[in-house]
Give the backbone structure.
Amino acid sequence: MPMEQTLSVLNDLVREGVLLNYAIGGAIAATFYIEPVATYDLDVFVSVPVLPSGLLLFSPIYSALKTRGFEAEDEYVHISGIAVQFLPAYNALVEEALAEARDIAVGCVSTKVIRAEHLMAIMLETGRRKDLARLAQMLEQSEFDAAVFEDLIDRHGLRRKWDGFRQQPG
């Protein structure tokens, strides 16, 4: 299966030290908690080596994938037929989400998926219309720990956004 092949490649990159860590995020991650939604790509949050200057080092990812025959196109790398977008752990919330991701199996391949509570907090933080719609869906359909979610909201400065979201009609 293409998804299993893609995840096997990502696991290889971790074993080789090209990626320090990764976890599935975005719409694909949401499908582990709610009804599947149409999506074009696999969002993969990653932890990568950082240069002394503070720059994140993404070039080894693209080089390692190129040696395997996978080419970058726009912001994606097509791995075994799956468009993969590598997203850096860009703040404390995403770093925490990456560190606390769930271990799951996709077919015969082990991978990590961001936990529902972190995924919901990231959706709230980004504030894009599609993320807020998915957040509403997560609130209705997923099993999540409300206390953990509320703690994330408070610790990561999202209380105002959360209060605004809850006041919206519908």
Notes: The chain has two domains: 2-115, 119-167. The mean pLDDT is 93. The helical segments are 2-15, 26-30, 59-67, 92-99, 116-126, 129-141, 146-155, 159-167. The chain has eight helices and seven strands.
